[in-house]
Amino acid sequence: xxxxxxxxxxxxxxxxxxxxxxxxxxxxxxxxxxxxxxxxxxxxxxxxxxxxxxxxxxxxxxxxxxxxxxxxxxxxxxxxx
Length: 81
Known about the structure:
The chain is mostly helical. Helix content is 54%, strand content 0%. The N and C termini lie far apart (89 Å).
C-alpha cells in the first residue's frame, strides 16, 4: 500500500471551520458572536448614507452665513464667546 493512500486529507473550508467553532461555543457566548457577525455582514454604506451621518458643530448662523465664515469676515471664535 502506498503511503499517499494511507494519508487521509481533509480540507475544511473556512466556512466549515467557523461553523464548527461556533457549534462548540457555550450558549452564553452566542449573543456576542451574533452581534459580531451582523456587524461584519452588514452592507457597506453608500456615499450618500455616509454623508448623511456627518454632523457639524458650529454657531447657529453657520449655514446662513457660510460665505462670511469662508471669507474670514466672521470667525467661529467670535460667535462662541
